[in-house]
C-alpha cells in the first residue's frame, strides 16, 4: 500500500457481494479509476478484467464517448490492505498496453446524495453557442441548482442537450431559464424529473400554423377572393385582440356561396410543418396517443387524422347545403376554452391524467390548453403566447418537441426504421 493511502478499516477487505460494500457505507475507502483515450471495443471489459484480480466491488460506473474519445470512470471499493499499490501498477500497465491514460484517485465513499428538487433542462440551439451554454449553466447555478449530468439528445436538425439538475425547485428554475432563453435566442424546457416524465402518454396539437404551415380559413378565402380581408381578421384574433368566436363567424360568413368542391382543393393545398410526420410517427412508436384540436374545420382535420393515423381530432364544421358553403359553422364552436375542454376530454378517453399530457400550439386561442396540460409548448408562437407557456420552441421543426420530452435522436431514427415506405 502506498504511504499516502489511509489504512483501510476491516470492512474494506470484505469479499465481493457482502452487504458491507461502499454503497452501504459512505465512509468506506474507495478508488476512482479514470481511463481516457481513443475508444475501441473491449476497453470496459479490459479494465474490469484487470480490477477483478483484486476482489473490488463496483460502486459506480460512468462512461461517455465524444468524437471517438472515451472517458470511463469506475468507482470501486478499495482492495484488501496492502494491495492498492499493486492494483495501481497493474492498471497503469494495462492502460499503457492499450494506449490509454489512467488516473487513480483514493478517497472515501460515493457521490454526495443529490439535492432535493430534481429537474430536466433541455436546451435546443440552432446552433448552440458556447455563450448560450455558459449563460444557461450560470443561471442554473444562480437558482441554487447543481448540474449532475449533461448529455446530448440530438445533433440534427438542432443541437439538443439535456442537463439533469438537482437542488432547486422546477418552477423557479423554469422562470429563470425562460428569461435567459429569450435573451439568448435558444429554446429551453424545464420539466420535473421523475417517473411521470416517461409516462406522458397523450400529445394534443393545434393545427393551423402548428401541425400545418397554413391557416386553413385563408386557403378557403383564397378561393372566395377575400384572402386579404380574412388574413387581417385572423391575425388580430391570434394576437388576442378579437374574441375568437366572433372573428370565426365573421370570416366564415365571407365564404358563403363557395362550391363545396373547394374542400378537396383546400385539402390538397395543406402543407405539413417540417418534422410533423417524424413527430407523430415517433410518438406513436413510443406508445403515445396523439390528437389535434382546431379552431379550423373538420373538413380538413378529419382528412389529417386519417392520413397521419391520429387518435383524436376535433374542429368546427363548415355547413354545406345544396353543394355550397352556407357561410355558417355547425355545432359548438371550438374556441380558446373549448380547446382546453377537448384536451381534458381526450385525456379522459385516453385514460391519461392531465398532468401527463403535452399540448402544442401557436395562438392565443391555444393558451388555456397549453396551461391545462402537464407540459405546454408554444410552437413558433406569437409573443404573448410564448411568454405565457411553460416552454417555447422557436425553430421551425415540429419534431424538436420530441427532445423536450427527453426522446433522443436514436429513438427517432429507430421509429424511422419501422416505417413502411410511404
Ligand atoms: Mg394555430
UniProtKB/TrEMBL annotation:
Broad EC category: hydrolase
Enzyme Commission identifier(s): 3.1.3.3
Spans annotated as Disordered: 1-22
Cellular component annotations (GO), alphabetically ordered: cytoplasm
Active site per UniProt: 206, 208
Record-level Gene Ontology MF annotations: L-phosphoserine phosphatase activity; magnesium ion binding
Record's compositionally biased regions (Low complexity): 13-22
Entries under InterPro entries matching the protein: ACT-like_dom_sf, ACT_dom, HAD-like_SerB, HAD-like_sf, HAD_sf, PSP, PSP_ACT
Biased composition annotated in UniProt, kind: Pro residues: 1-12
PANTHER family from the UniProt entry: PHOSPHOSERINE PHOSPHATASE (PTHR43344:SF2)
Protein family per UniProt: Belongs to the HAD-like hydrolase superfamily. SerB family.
Record protein name field: Phosphoserine phosphatase
Amino acid at each position: 500500500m502506498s504511504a499516502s493511502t489511509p489504512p483501510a478499516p476491516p470492512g474494506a477487505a470484505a469479499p465481493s457481494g457482502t452487504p458491507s460494500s461502499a454503497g452501504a457505507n459512505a465512509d468506506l475507502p474507495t478508488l476512482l479509476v479514470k481511463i481516457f483515450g481513443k475508444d475501441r471495443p473491449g476497453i470496459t471489459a479490459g479494465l474490469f478484467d484487470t480490477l477483478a484480480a483484486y476482489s473490488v466491488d463496483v460502486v459506480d460506473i460512468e462512461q461517455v464517448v465524444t468524437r471517438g474519445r472515451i472517458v470511463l470512470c469506475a468507482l470501486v471499493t478499495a482492495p484488501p490492505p496492502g494491495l492498492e499499490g499493486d492494483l495501481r501498477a497493474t492498471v497503469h500497465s494495462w492502460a499503457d498496453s492499450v494506449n490509454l491514460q489512467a488516473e487513480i484517485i483514493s478517497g472515501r465513499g460515493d457521490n454526495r446524495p443529490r439535492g432535493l428538487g430534481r429537474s430536466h433542462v433541455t436546451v435546443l440551439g440552432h446552433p448552440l453557442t458556447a455563450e448560450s451554454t455558459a449563460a444557461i449553466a450560470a443561471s442554473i447555478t444562480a437558482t441554487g441548482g447543481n448540474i449532475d449530468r449533461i448529455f446530448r439528445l440530438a445533433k440534427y436538425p438542432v443541437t439538443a442537450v439535456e442537463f439533469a439538475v438537482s437542488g432547486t425547485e422546477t418552477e423557479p428554475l423554469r422562470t429563470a431559464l425562460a428569461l435567459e432563453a429569450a435573451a439568448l435566442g435558444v429554446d429551453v424546457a424545464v420539466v420535473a424529473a421523475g417517473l411521470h416524465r416517461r409516462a406522458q402518454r397523450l400529445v394534443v396539437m393545434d393545427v393551423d400554423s402548428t401541425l400545418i404551415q397554413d391557416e386553413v380559413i385563408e386557403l378557403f378565402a383564397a378561393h372566395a377572393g377575400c384572402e386579404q380581408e380574412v388574413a387581417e381578421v385572423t391575425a388580430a384574433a391570434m394576437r388576442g385582440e378579437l374574441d375568437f368566436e366572433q372573428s370565426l363567424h365573421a370570416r366564415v360568413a365571407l365564404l358563403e356561396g363557395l362550391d363545396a368542391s373547394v374542400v378537396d382543393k383546400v385539402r390538397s393545398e395543406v402543407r405539413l410543418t417540417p418534422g410533423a410526420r417524424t413527430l407523430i410517427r415517433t410518438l406513436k412508436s413510443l406508445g403515445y396517443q396523439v390528437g389535434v384540436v382546431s379552431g379550423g374545420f373538420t373538413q380538413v382535420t378529419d382528412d389529417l387524422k386519417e392520413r397521419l393515423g391520429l387518435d383524436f381530432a376535433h374542429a368546427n364544421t363548415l355547413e354545406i347545403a345544396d353543394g355550397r358553403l352556407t357561410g355558417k359553422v355547425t355545432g359548438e364552436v371550438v374556441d380558446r376554452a373549448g380547446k382546453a375542454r377537448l384536451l381534458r376530454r381526450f385525456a379522459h378517453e385516453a385514460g391519461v391524467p392531465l398532468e401527463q399530457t403535452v399540448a402544442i400550439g401557436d395562438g392565443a386561442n391555444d393558451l388555456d390548453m397549453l396551461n391545462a396540460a402537464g407540459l405546454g409548448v408554444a410552437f413558433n408562437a406569437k409573443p404573448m403566447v410564448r411568454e405565457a407557456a411553460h416552454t417555447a420552441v422557436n425553430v421551425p421543426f415540429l419534431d424538436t418537441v420530441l427532445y423536450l420530452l427527453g426522446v433522443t435522436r436514436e429513438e427517432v431514427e429507430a421509429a424511422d426504421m419501422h416505417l413502411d415506405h410511404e
